[in-house]
Amino acid sequence: MTSYLLLFGFGIITAGAGLDLLLGVTKTLVRQLPFVFGALGSAAVVIVGIIAVHGRVDSVPLGQSLGVGQSYLRIDRLAGLFLILVGGLGVLVSFIIASWVKPARRLSSRGHGAGYMLLLGSTYAIICAGDAYSFLFAWELLTVSFYVLTSVEAKDATKARSSWITLVVGKVGGVSLLLGFLLAAAKSGSFNIAQWHDIPLGTTHDIIFALVIVGFAAKVGVIPFHVWIPVGYPQATGPIRAAMAGVAANVGFYGLWRFLEILGHPPIWLAASVLVVGGTTALLGIVFAAVQSQLSRVVAYSSIENAGIILVGYGVALAGIATGNKVLAALGILAASLQILAHATAKSLLFTSSAFFETSDGGNLDSMSGVYRTHRASGSTFAIGAFTLAGLPPAIGFVSEWMILESLMQEFRLHILALRLAMAFAGALVALTTGIASLAFIRLIGLVVLRRPPQGSITSKPLEDKGWFGTAALILLALACLLSAAFAPLVIRYMSGGLSSVANTNIISHALKSPWVLQPVYSNFSILSPSWLFVVIPTAALIVFLAAHALSRGEMLKIRRVAPWHCGADFDGNATDYSAFGYSNILRHVLRNILGTSTSVSADDECEDSPGIQVHSIVSDPFEFYVYRPIRAAYLSVVSVAKRLQSGRLDAYVAYMLVALIVMLTVVAITG
Q1: What is the pLDDT of residues 482-496, one digit of tens each?
Q2: Which end of the chain has fewer surrounding CB within 10 Å, N or C?
Q3: 3 state DSSP class of 208
Q4: Would you give the end-to-end CA distance of the chain in angstroms?
Q5: How far apart are CA 214 and CA 212, in angstroms?
Q6: From CA 49, how far away is CA 413, in angstroms rounded?
Q7: Distance between CA atoms of residues 258 and 664, nearest Å
């Protein structure tokens, strides 16, 4: 049954892509239909995942359809768990996109639907791939889909450059996976991924482990491969970004989980490196997110932060396996899996909800004020998504980050100094990251959602209706962020079935001190009840509100209106508000060594009545500045030399060949 459902899902997705390419985007129904097909195909995949998590392992033979060797798809419990996550998000995001594309001007050309279907199909195929051929083939298709979705609207050189960066980094990750897979196949004598369990420990095993981690890390945006995310995600159209960040990015995490199950014991140096790189990625991502002035770039950089936090939890699991501490390994993989759930749902919610009120200037934060007043559904759900990524209770982001920090506190249980130092270092970085994340996302809630919009701003004019399906899908995503925290013990129980091949299910169940209380697997440590927090925090807030209202005798709710006043002169009240730049400016100065902040001040002569000054502040990514720019300069130098060689004279080429022949004969004579 599962094999037929899976093939049905792939068939529906393929049909959706064909509809987009054949019929175009001229009519409303034609624009929406491919994404409805994507929702139906994703729903079939979810059913397959549910069946697999409950213990039904199945496979779908593909024969030699890829042209090389025997290929097949395999659905086990781990694949089923990820299929439920990405398939469920695929259903909701597809319905939201179908509502979003209703106005004709939002899609100017065909290709969006086909690229989106390609993304969904390749994502599901990667999770189900049972051999190296089908895995790498689907991986390359996913890279192509990213390029299509970021380039279909690229009408200038800057946008085209962003698409090429996305493609190049994707190819780098693919090359790393290809090398790792070839080594594994050569060592095991098989291209069947399940046969790689038998690869013996040693140098080759460690190299394979490192190569696959690099390949999957490039897809999720771990440093130094993160440069494509802040330029790639914003180039995608509207809520389609949610498919890239919330759906497809999970294949990178799936690959890390799958090869932890396959390869098993990692070297100490690799576990320590993953912890350090993960913590650094998290801090770098959230610091740059906090100082961005465009909404799409804020959310994109926060994806880098979340990838780093997930990688830290994965590093804890590696440290536990490397030292034989199965309890620590279970804690790390459980905490990281909860963070994947938090990131996927909240990031999908942010990108989809913001698409309904994002301004035409790329989502400048200062031009989007008070969206809750005009966009109640999308504004409210956007606030919930931002609240989740801020890591504040009672949302799932708080629960997952709490477990990540608790796992890092177990470093005293390890006997290897390098791992203890790496966990302590990562713990400090993650703690700092969570604090800055609160600053970054509270800024979004305050400036974008709650702030009073200035007169005549673009957000004072409602955009098109989202429709019932779009609104319902947004609400379901928001509820997922909240209810997955309220019912975290039930979520963990269900996750344990899918994670049983990676970590001991019985050990994971140790996190459940009682039916509604969590502990970080270890007994007699700290405990938390997100279920009770979900009840206590709103109740306490209501009590405080009622008490304040009673003690003030109702004065608290009265609004006192006075004329704006500033320095003895009438002034526009909005001009005294914090701007997105001003709110984060202190962070630019405090962390200027990380951000590479450069500031310039110039006179502002635009207003003759009240001249002032303009402050220009630029931040630069250290990896882009110190790594990629020198590489680009060296590459362009080589290209310029090659261009001169291409336009040379014929007698010069003959001379080159003669010199090369003499050199080769000399070498042969000496070595012979």
Answers
A1: 999 989 888 998 888
A2: C
A3: helix
A4: 66
A5: 5
A6: 36
A7: 48
